[in-house]
Amino acid sequence: NSVGMIPMGMSFHYYWGDFNALKIGSNGWLGFDNIGNIASCFPSIPTAGGAGDNFLAPLMSDLIFGPGVPGAAYYKHDAVNNRFIVSYIGVPHWQAAAPGYFGISTFQVILSGADSSITFQYQNSNLGGGPCLTPTVNQVIGIEGPTGTLGLSHSINLAAPNANYAVKFIYPPVVLIQIQDLTPFWTLNTGNKAQFYYTNAAASIPVNVKN
User: Fold this and answer.
1) Beta-carbon count within 10 A of 25 CB
2) How far apart are CA 23 and CA 2, in angstroms?
3) Structure confidence by residue, pLDDT tens digits, 167-211
4) What angle do CA 14, 19, 22 make, to 5 degrees?
5) Are 51 and 33 in contact (CB under 8 A)?
6) 173: Cβ–Cβ under 8 A, 6 or more apart, which residues?
7) pTM of the model
8) DSSP letter for each residue of 161-196
9) Using CB atoms within 10 A of its CB, is residue 117 exposed (0-12), middle (13-18) or buried (19+)?
């Protein structure tokens, strides 16, 4: 259901992290973390504690790959333009009835190392089906941050994107969000120096933390 981690040949800045590899999921998602799989029924964006965080969803739907199934996914490091591109070409959606798939969707993701922008481009697409009951979430488009509590949702279960349609996420020139991210400042003592203890004695180990 996924391939990776795949080296991008460049560093890409996403939220407050820098990444040089990603994972390509069969269900129309790309992950900067080593996600196992995001499958139907699909989470809305953002969803804390979901199947994965730190991912892009250009067309997160119940797509299908396999022997006898048309379509493929490709990736390319465009070194000249400092870009990494992932393209899903003629990929169908899963269905229970024979032949096991329907329709085709062709779309791509362009990651720009120059300005940290993300572009979703659609040549053609179908609104996916799936085995979901209630709530039915068969198609999600957007991006989710590394914590699962931040993200930008473009659409959930809307009509399939129009042909020759594009969505571009632009990294802000000034980042206004403030994240309280704790890290150890010192342990044992302010100089982080070693201390010796008797093996049978209980020890209290002080720790100081900072943002």
Assistant:
1) 25
2) 7
3) 999 998 888 877 666 777 888 888 888 878 777 777 788 888 876
4) 100
5) no
6) none
7) 0.77
8) PPTTEEEEE---SS--------EEEEESSTT-----
9) middle
Single out the residue of 129, 105, 109 nearest to residue 119, CA to CA: 109
Distances (CA, A) of 114 to 96, 111, 192: 43, 9, 39
Q: How far apart are CA 57 and CA 157, in angstroms?
A: 13
For residue 139, which of 70, 41, 7, 54 has the smallest C-alpha distance?
41
Token pair, residue 186, equals: 């010192």
Radius of gyration of the chain (CA): 21
> CA 74 → CA 37, 89, 98, 109, distances in Å?
19, 8, 27, 11
Write the single-letter amino acid at 175: V
Model confidence at 109: pLDDT above 70 = yes
Amino acid letter at 202?
Answer: A
Signed CA dihedral, 85, 61, 4, 167: sign only: positive
Q: How many CB atoms lie within 10 A of CB 23?
A: 21
- Residue pair 143/167 in contact (Cβ under 8 Å)? The answer is no
CB 38 within 8 A of CB 56: no
What is the average pLDDT value for the chain, to the nearest integer?
Answer: 85
DSSP at 26: T
- Cα gap 55→4, rounded to integer Å: 13
Dig out the tokens for 110 from the structure: 């362009």
